[in-house]
Amino acid sequence: MLTGGGDCPGLNAVIRAVARRLLDRGWEVEGVREGWRGLVEARSSPFGYREISGLLPRGGTILGTSRTNPFRLDGGVEAVLRNFEALGLDALVAIGGEDTLGVAARLYEEQGFPVVGVPKTIDNDLSATDYTFGFDTAVWVCTEAIDRLHTTAESHNRVMVVEVMGRHTGWIAVMSGIAGGADVILIPEHPITVEAACDDIRRRHQRGKDFSIVVVSEGYELTYASGEQRAVTQEAALDQFGHVRLGGVGEALAHEIEQRTGFETRVTVLGHVQRGGSPTPRDRVLATRYGLKAADLVHEGRFGRMAALHGDSIVDVSLAEATAELKTVPPGWYEVARAFFG
Ligand code: F6P
Question: What is the pTM assigned to this prediction?
């Protein structure tokens, strides 16, 4: 097995479950180091019962991770196939998000590579599953932060802008914003204008509330009534999967709000705190169920599949379906949040 892309609470719980079930069934298990890079460079080590002890609550990934894309490296795919054989492997469990599983889907389609997937990401943007593991923990961290920001916002009569992760979808912002009682939430899928956000804040203050909480998703583009849109990024360079590094929209939005409303405004960027540390009980359980399902798929030789959550059931779906497009926040969810704006 390997873990790829950004780390995420619950990765070690999946590793434990995959290994436990396969070891119990008489398989030998290997941990590949640092995502696809480990297969490009043939770096892996055997996993026994001792290696998986104590993993359930542990944050991060004991396998390490990377954003290596073998399809973007000269001879990368050939190296993966060659090393997979040289290491004597029969099947791969790839634990990752759209990028890592996108590679898995392509390797399966184009090379018949024996791989199954487990849907990981705090962003919750993978299709064909209701939830990815790690998302619940990120929402919990953000909600706790919003609760804390409420009390200091109220004491100082301030507007508090909270920037959360999520890349090009607003799942974390919407869910933590609803849970934390945010007064305005801005997300990439349904971009309300800066002017509308300021109107909501003013309306609230006219009703006698002297403070406001604004949650903004890092992928929100500053959108103006004129129709102009401005993306805020950390750097223009793209990673091996073609992503820009997002971040900074909170600061830009806070500046706009303060200028336009005259209310004192502060910014909190939650950043990688959302990904670190121990998974919530819900994520531990989901990760465990996903890991067992992935091991079952391997045991049954059902490759090209991904463990998924539909309602309360763990099912399997095709990797191609899961990675075909991003799962965005549906309008209905945003309406729930919007009912409390202003
Ligand atoms: O995909 C998970 C995620 O945390 C995104 O929400 C965020 O945009 C990105 O990874 C940050 O990546 P890095 O860890 O490379 O800064």
Answer: 0.97
